Amino acid sequence: MTETIALATLICAGLVVISVFTSLISFRVGAPLLLVFLCIGLIAGEDGIGGIAFENAPVAYFVGSISLAVILFDSGFGTRLKTFRVAAAPAILLATIGVVLTALLIAIPTRYLLDLSWLEALLLGAIVGSTDAAAVFFLLRVGGIHIRDRIRSVLEVESGSNDPMAIFLTVTLVEMAMAGGEGQQVLSWDFLNAFVTQMGLGIACGLGFSFLAVHAINRIRLEPSLYPIIILGFALSIFGATSLLGGSGFLAVYISGLVMGNMELTGSLTLRRFQEGLTWIAQITMFLMLGLLATPSAFPAIAWQAVVIGLLLMLVARPVAIWLCLMPFGFKSNETTFIAWVGLRGAVSVLMGILPIVGGLESGQTLFNAAFIIVLTSLLLQGWTVRPLAKWLGLIIPPDTGAVEKIELELPGNANHELVSYRIAEDCPVSKGERIPRWARPSLVVRNDRSMQMHEAGRPQPGDYVYIFVPPRLIPLLDRLFASELVLSDEDLDYFGEFSIVPDTPIGSISALYGFPVPEEEAGISTGDFLKKHLTKPLGRGDRMLLGDVELIIRDMDPETGELSIGLALEPSVPAAAKSPAVQRAQEFLIIARARLWHPLPGKRDKTDA
């Protein structure tokens, strides 16, 4: 018995260690990291060199569900309320209607390619209907892809919130398949009621329990290392309690993370660090276990059919669903194309593929194998092409700050300030004489391993460590003062235009100088207000408007005052042409027509729609 436990521990821990070390491959060659974990599981499985036989689908589903709950909680906890507000409407539509449309569209080829019933084909569509939050967050955050805030927000919120809908569809369709003829009709009538009940309870429990948890945690005093444990315990309790009440536990745990991450919560900074490691463990565990559960020797029987379904999912089903859902929100065709492409399938799809096996469906193994191959196809094709596609579509924007060395320290209780330590870079604004704002309170300087007070230290010097008390919401502004000088390439400089425009300058003056028309009633308003009026809300860095032969570009926007920094380009830069599937031309036409009807502006057109 002891030897068995020791061997199991060695195998599990060894696989985790190997997975972490092989992550270096991902960072070096740009491979999707989660694909590496999945492949290690396959290699260690019964058809691989490891020869580990693991066939316990119920255990895999249980462990995977807990891991997914941890990942969704972290996704919500790391989503700023500002990000959620920016993306709420389009992202929620994508996470609900978009998942349903994707499932319906992909069911059509599945029905004939895999010779399944319509219900089973729709079940596979539901299984692969959601995007993988872990894969999307890794590519966008860890991968360092700088894209416009609105697009990033939509992708992050959608990937974090669409799992509950896919899980609901999968569970319901499995129950319908198990019920048989008459039972299917009964369940079909109850479908809408079940949806409202599960999602309604998920939202209500997620909000209610998380508010109670925050107030409870803030009223007790614990050892600092215990706060992350009790917070995570509350999150999983919310997941379990909501599921027992008949609601969507996955939706509840995501909402609880969103609420807790945006409230004043004792131990939140410690939790963020704790969550980073725990979420990685959850992701590695899910992918390794699902890789072990798979039987690659059974893949060839449906390999080419599943690959074709995966390609149709990426190239037809999701793009059409995204196009229909985003049509009311004024997204440009290049933006819609990118959002459609960053729909990576991952562990959630494979995890949902276990349910037909657990439910005892005859086609259960076929559905699981098909889902696995579709996920591999998605990670291989989409995971490697996200950055090149973003660059080709002209959506990558230059970073707004250089590198900054910073350590955030949490104060006891619910203090309104955080203690932040910066190392002064040689070429940062502070080392060049820029004053630290009054709302920031420097308290200590460490120079040559010696600590001293600010008045004793004198002018800050490169290499100093400065400890500053600052309100959390203002830390990003302080980062800019301590960031090293940002060296932009000629291409980056061209991106923001050759000339700088004072935002208060009347747009009529600019139009008279460069020869483009503006309506007489708008000639007197400032250039900044003109852009705010005509560009799609919310505004962000890199937003641009083509006026005649020149282009106005938002270089930056003050997060506190909303004041714009505006550039002007005489020769509009590269992504002038819209590079998108033909199906999106209808959306492009509607956007242009709406702009002409609501804000007539001769000569105005958007660069990405040119």
Structural overview:
It is a multi-pass membrane protein. Helix content is 59%, strand content 8%. With 610 residues, it is α+β, with helices and mostly antiparallel strands. The chain has a five-stranded antiparallel beta sheet with strand order 1-2-5-3-4. It has a five-stranded antiparallel beta sheet with strand order 6-9-8-7-10, covered by helices on one side. The protein has helices at residues 2-29, 33-44, 57-77, 81-113, 118-127, 133-142, 149-161, 163-219, 227-244, 249-261, 268-293, 303-326, 333-341, 347-358, 364-381, 386-392, 454-457, 475-482, 490-495, 507-514, 527-534, 585-598; strands at residues 405-409, 418-423, 441-447, 450-452, 465-470, 499-501, 544-547, 550-557, 564-569, 604-605. A hairpin with a 2-residue loop joins strand 7 (544-547) and strand 8. The chain has three domains: 56-392, Na+/H+ antiporter like fold (Up-down Bundle); 405-482, Alpha-Beta Plaits, CATH 3.30.70; 490-609, 2-Layer Sandwich (Uridine Diphospho-n-acetylenolpyruvylglucosamine Reductase, domain 3). It has 22 helices and ten strands.
Topology:
Blueprint: H1 2-29, H2 33-44, H3 57-77, H4 81-113, H5 118-127, H6 133-142, H7 149-161, H8 163-219, H9 227-244, H10 249-261, H11 268-293, H12 303-326, H13 333-341, H14 347-358, H15 364-381, H16 386-392, E1 405-409, E2 418-423, E3 441-447, E4 450-452, H17 454-457, E5 465-470, H18 475-482, H19 490-495, E6 499-501, H20 507-514, H21 527-534, E7 544-547, E8 550-557, E9 564-569, H22 585-598, E10 604-605
Antiparallel strand pairs: 1-2, 2-5, 3-4, 3-5, 6-9, 7-8, 7-10, 8-9
Helix pairs in contact: 1-2, 2-11, 3-9, 3-10, 3-11, 3-14, 4-5, 4-7, 4-8, 4-12, 5-8, 6-7, 8-9, 8-10, 8-14, 9-10, 9-11, 12-13, 12-15, 14-15
